[in-house]
User: Which sequence fits this backbone?
């Protein structure tokens, strides 16, 4: 039956994509509320070919909402997600506000969907985009061979930072190509034609929060706190699509052939792996605007007897955030 849905953060990049995916997947919506800050209230967003007025989150009464999808930052989730849950909504939160709470499930639809039911606080957390795409590929291998250690270097697109970052990359690129100055505003240094080894905030151990998310979330979602995870997160001058160089060590030996078999059967994933030029997935040629997670460059690690390396690419706004949130909402609906 049809339900009442609220999108919190409807005017952001993820919010807009949430609306598109809800329409594409014909989510059974009886009533839709699109919510944002007072600054955006009164503006309009497009859903299923019609305009919908944005309501002010601060004055909105959440009673009657069945499912609330949050993508407005951690502070908004911290303040409003519990209120929506208390009013009876199931909250699916894209921020990192609740991901690491023991009584909040952290769910990738293709990896641990059964966890959706385990929501004593009425809140389900959506993992970080970089974790999401990585685990869609690694979970089948972990289940068979047991990942003991994981090294990952990510090449994250600027859409992960938001609209202003998308604008900055475009503006800076144009200005530099016209031999004009390009002062950085969103990032600490120039992003156009550059690679910035920094995502999120620095922590006391020298890693950034974006890197530590890969550590904490991998262990929680795979249910194994013993997995060693080492991450380096970089921002690259790409608009949409995060790329990841992943190197795993496994408890049991697994060959590339067996890994390929597992990945071919894995839901939500496509293999692009020919050992020729262009025989691999990239943000521009494959991931941007698409739903699947793409895997290529599969090879046994020549430096380790039970090592495997691969290249994982996905659209960080679609599968990395919006699509998984809608898939979790579909799982909640299926309980009814
Ligand atoms: C980033 N993963 O790419 C973050 C966004 N959630 O900056």
Assistant:
């Amino acid at each position: 039956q049809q339900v009442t849905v609220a999108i919190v953060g409807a005017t952001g990049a993820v919010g807009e994509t949430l609306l598109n995916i809800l329409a594409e997947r014909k989510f059974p919506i009886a009533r839709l509320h699109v919510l944002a800050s007072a600054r955006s209230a009164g503006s309009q967003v497009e859903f299923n070919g019609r305009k919908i007025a944005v309501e002010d989150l601060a004055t909105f009464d959440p009673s009657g909402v069945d499912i609330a999808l949050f993508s407005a930052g951690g502070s908004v989730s911290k303040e409003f997600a519990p209120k929506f849950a208390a009013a009876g909504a199931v909250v699916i939160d894209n921020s990192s506000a609740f991901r690491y709470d023991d009584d909040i499930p952290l769910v990738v639809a293709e990896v641990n969907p059964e966890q959706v039911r385990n929501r004593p606080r009425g809140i389900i957390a959506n993992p970080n985009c970089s974790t999401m795409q990585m685990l869609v590929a690694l979970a089948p291998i972990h289940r068979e061979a047991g990942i003991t250690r994981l090294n990952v270097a990510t090449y994250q697109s600027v859409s992960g930072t938001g609209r202003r970052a998308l604008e900055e990359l475009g503006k800076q690129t144009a200005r530099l190509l016209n031999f004009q100055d390009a002062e950085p505003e969103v990032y600490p240094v120039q992003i156009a034609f550059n690679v910035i080894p920094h995502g999120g905030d620095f922590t006391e151990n020298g890693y950034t929060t974006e890197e530590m998310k890969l550590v904490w979330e991998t262990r929680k979602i795979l249910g194994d706190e013993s997995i060693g995870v080492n991450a380096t997160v970089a921002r690259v001058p790409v608009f949409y699509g995060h790329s990841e160089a992943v190197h795993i060590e496994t408890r049991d030996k697994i060959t590339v052939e067996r890994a390929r078999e597992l990945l071919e059967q894995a839901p939500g994933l496509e293999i692009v792996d020919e050992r020729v030029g262009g025989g691999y997935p990239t943000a521009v040629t494959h991931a941007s605007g698409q739903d699947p997670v793409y895997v290529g460059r599969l090879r046994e690690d020549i430096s380790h007897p039970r090592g495997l390396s691969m290249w994982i690419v996905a659209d960080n706004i679609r599968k990395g955030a919006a699509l998984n949130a809608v898939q979790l909402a579909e799982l909640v609906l299926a309980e009814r």
The two ends are 9 Å apart (CA to CA). The chain has eight helices and 13 strands. The mean pLDDT is 97. The first helix runs from residue 13 to 24.
